[in-house]
Amino acid sequence: MKTNKPVCITGASGFIAAHIVRELLERGYHVRGTVRKSPENYPFLLALPGASERLELVRADLLADGSYDQAVEGCDYVMHTASPYEINVKNPQTDLVDPAVNGTETILESCLKSGTVKRVIFTSSIAAITDEPDSTKVFSEKDWNTMSSLDRNPYHFSKTVAELAAWDFIMKKRPRFDLVTVNPFMVIGPSIGPSLNTSNQIIRDIMTGVYPGIMDLNWGFVDVRDVARAHVLAMETDTASGRYLCSGEAMHMRELVALLKSSGFNSFALPKIDLTGKVGTMLMKALSFTQPKDTGIYIRTTIGRTMRYDNSKIRRELGISFMPVKESLIETVNDMIKWGHLPLPKH
Ligand code: NAP
After folding, report:
1. Is residue 71 exposed (0-12), middle (13-18) or buried (19+ Cβ within 10 Å)?
2. Is 64 in the pocket of ligand 1 (CB under 6 A)?
3. Among candidates 108, 125, 126, 230, which has minimal Cα distance to 178?
4. Choosing from 159, 285, 313, 346, which is the catalytic residue?
């Protein structure tokens, strides 16, 4: 056990954060999670093993100054995961960037005031590394997304400016605590709560006919339980430092569809037409203009490009090994069926 004081985790109700709460409780820690509503709204957190003795839920909001002072009081470690994760928003500045950036600064200010915090573990994203795969390049922690803006992949922009704001805070204010970031790629896996997370929703969309065909897209996948473990290891490992790109294997949409087909999910509306060639990619780029604005931009910046990345730093320094993506994907689908986000497969 690294600390006997509560470990604070922001946005405890979230897909990733709920797994971090579970992992911390399982390891015997006291957890103080921040949420936006009163605790009785989160029965799935209160029912976690160890929660009745060691989980405290307190209310806080990223947009309210000083909101996290009470939450971080007396803590050695703070994990900041809360941030809006949505793709098509009305106003990217107020819906994404303000809570991401102002929220990060607010929490770091609270940590500074506390005088006790030793380390902040910040949930960043691959989005802060790049929003455009480049077939000639292998991405790593050294890379920064310099392309996104309020008009181009605004979610990616919000994650980039929030992480930059966090490092800037450390440089300028030189607090007693250090900062470690975990930068996951597409996080999938079973959900502790009933909501459908944006990343799992992509898998559901692939299974429910939202995509007209199989496109030349590939993603790096990481199981939510591995992401939770990475956060806890980033806290427990004294020598952890800097950024950690957190992703297992990459998978092409073609392989993903084939895997789902051969795993008993053939009755779902999986895409059939192969649009992975040059003509298909041109067609999809043209069709992307009929999609909601940010989905369209995302397709145009990623389609036809192979994403390659180096995950050796997290494996070497935190000792993480990643769950095979196939296993994680099948569990994700079965979990979405369990929660009613997908119907039962027909046999
Ligand atoms: P999620 O389930 O949507 O969780 C987001 C959390 O942020 C929720 O607890 C939400 O609270 C909270 N939040 C949003 N706006 C807030 C505000 N104004 N004040 C206080 N809390 C607020 O998403 P997730 O996938 O777990 O994401 C967690 C973190 O991981 C985010 O920082 C996200 O950018 C990052 N990430 C996710 C992925 C992925 O593939 N899922 C990949 C890389 C990085 P409510 O429950 O009240 O809405």
Report:
1. buried
2. no
3. 108
4. 159
Q: Measured in angstroms, how far is the CA atom of residue 106 from the centroid of ligand 1? A: 16
CA of 71 to the centre of ligand 1 (A): 17
The reply to whether 176 falls in a domain is yes
Annotated active-site residue 159? The verdict is yes
Report which protein residue has its CA nearest ligand 1's atom 1: 14
Distance between CA 92 and CA 86 in Å, rounded? Answer: 10
Amino acid, single-letter form, for residue 62: L
Q: Cα separation of 158 and 120, whole Å?
A: 19
Number of domains in the chain: 1
Q: Is the CB of 123 under 6 A from ligand 1?
A: yes
Q: Is the CB of 62 under 6 A from ligand 1?
A: yes
Q: Which domain holds residue 183?
A: 7-192+223-247+307-322
pTM (global) more than 0.90: yes
Identify whether 232 is part of a domain.
Answer: yes
The residue whose CB lies within 8 Å of the most ligand 1 atoms, and thus the one to mutate among 83, 86, 163, 221, is: 83
- Whether residue 235 is contained in a domain is answered as yes
Nearest CA to 84 among 181, 20, 15, 138? 15
SS3 state of residue 256: helix
Query: Measured in angstroms, how far is the CA atom of residue 258 from the centroid of ligand 1?
Result: 30
* Spatial distance between the Cα atoms of 129 and 69, rounded to a whole number of angstroms: 30
pLDDT digits (tens, 9 = 90+) for 164-192: 999 999 999 999 999 999 999 999 999 99
Query: Which CATH number goes with the domain that contains 146?
Result: 3.40.50.720
Asked, for residue 230, whether it belongs to a domain, the answer is yes
Tens-place pLDDT, residues 214-246 = 999 999 999 999 999 999 999 999 999 999 999
